Amino acid sequence: MQGTARTPSPSETAYTPTDRTVPTRSPDRASYDRDLVHAILDEAYVCHLGFVRDGAPVVLPTLYARVGETLYVHGSTGSRPLRAAGQADPGLPVCLTVTHVDGLVLARSAFHHSINYRSVVVHGVARDVTDPEEKRRALDALVDHVVQGRSADSRPANKKELAATAVLRLDLDEVSAKLRTGGVNDEPEDLALPHWAGVVPVRKTYGTPVPDPDLSADTALPDYLQGR
Amino acid sequence: MQGTARTPSPSETAYTPTDRTVPTRSPDRASYDRDLVHAILDEAYVCHLGFVRDGAPVVLPTLYARVGETLYVHGSTGSRPLRAAGQADPGLPVCLTVTHVDGLVLARSAFHHSINYRSVVVHGVARDVTDPEEKRRALDALVDHVVQGRSADSRPANKKELAATAVLRLDLDEVSAKLRTGGVNDEPEDLALPHWAGVVPVRKTYGTPVPDPDLSADTALPDYLQGR
């Protein structure tokens, strides 16, 4: 599979559940729908990447991008997980998790307090990308995943920068989404209690872009940042 | 340490770095300052909890709360990590990570694109909370960590709900913060390139609270939600 991102046949509308992607709790909140998983992944750009070092878990935040059925993460060639993946055969077992918080659910009972969220959990083996063309495409995707259109409006990485950057690929095979939506689920006998109940929406917002002090005054804010 | 949250002596203003809390990359972005770590932890309420199952990493989003030098997470007594922690002696090795995204850093070069962020990584052993008083305090803290003052304005958990809920504690001993702040770090020879460069601020915002349809019309929005 090295060299190109995996493309599923159009008939595959869902990921196949496995023992570790079927949750023990609230299985009704789990989904394997490919479009839903893609939408959750495409709306974020920071994931939490877990791996095992000396038998103990490590979880680090890092940028990622999706290209078809492949996720890419990158980092310095000197970073521990990237080095480990490059040295391991066939790669580094990882769990990559992405979470959006959509709301605070305040129930009348403390027990039924909850969070509206959408998350994706990907299990698999991360492999070092060695093909130069795939690596370059992955790096473009990492920039564009944060700001669509940006990679074409920046100086591409030179040889030295490419050599200093390691890219890992993780195919979307063992994948699940989990989400909670909707309102409060109080017990019927609690409905008359005097406590306020409802949902407080939460979302990510962008402030006014702050230009670099060295930017020449005639460099306009690009279209892809308008409305951020 | 069971029964009470750990309280450090006032002289301990920083956590002691260990082999796994000193990053291999960008060590200048790491901090062990206790107040900074607390501030990062107190501003979020969803963490990513990593543990090892059958030799492979698992990373799940979950709520947490801080009480002094102790973090608490909770879940159903039927959930896999909670069950594993209850059965393991002395507990479940975990890595708990909290991340805030503060800005998108757009450099003139693709290579220097970055994210402004603040994160905390906690390594340790999560232990099942068995003391009923500590468990109740932890559950109150979990509600109040999301909305300060809310636990006093909701029906407390009853015996059945308490029995269905497992709480894990994780002491803040092996802890580090890592953060990037500030502007663009382009190479001097790139400064004249025609690409826009700067920082797009990112933050979490709250929408207007949506009352539960069953809420009686005379239940006012509580003070602790005003301004959310």
UniProtKB/TrEMBL annotation, chains A, B:
Region (Disordered) spans which residues?
A: 1-29, 207-228
Q: Pfam families given for it?
A: Pyridox_ox_2
The family database entries (SUPFAM superfamilies) matched by this protein are listed as: FMN-binding split barrel
Source superkingdom = Bacteria
Show the ranges annotated as biased composition (Polar residues): 1-24
Q: Which PANTHER family match?
A: 5-NITROIMIDAZOLE ANTIBIOTICS RESISTANCE PROTEIN, NIMA-FAMILY-RELATED PROTEIN-RELATED, FLAVIN-NUCLEOTIDE-BINDING PROTEIN
Q: What is this protein called?
A: Pyridoxamine 5'-phosphate oxidase family protein
Q: Which organism was this protein described from?
A: Streptomyces dubilierae
